[in-house]
Design brief:
Blueprint: E1 7-17, E2 20-30, E3 35-36, E4 41-42, E5 49-51, E6 58-72, E7 78-93
Antiparallel strand pairs: 1-2, 1-7, 2-3, 3-4, 5-6, 6-7
């Protein structure tokens, strides 16, 4: 796939949290590295996906993403915390 070439996909993305899994499904675009959805770009996740057996256009995989959050603790101090988000991704390339 060309670096600039994007393909339309149908996707299912599961984010695993302490409260349980959170599933997002829909249509988006991919290139060689990223998944682009209406609400967010998931960077560098496509390389962790592999072709599903007996399929020519379905892929799945899992990846981790780090996110920095800022919050106020009990003493009123701002605290920065880096959290790791774990995802499972399935997508089908649409023609």
């Amino acid at each position: 796939m060309n670096e600039k070439e994007r393909k339309k996909v149908k996707f299912s993305l599961i984010k695993f949290t302490k409260k349980g899994p959170f599933r997002t499904t829909g249509f988006g675009m991919i290139d060689d590295e990223n998944l682009y959805t209406k609400s967010k770009t998931y960077e560098d996740c496509i390389r962790y996906c592999h072709k599903m057996p007996n399929s020519t256009n379905e892929f799945k995989g899992s990846f981790n993403e780090f996110e920095e959050i800022e919050f106020e603790n009990d003493k009123g101090h701002l605290v920065n915390l880096e959290i790791e988000n774990c995802y499972s991704l399935w997508f089908k390339i649409l023609n």
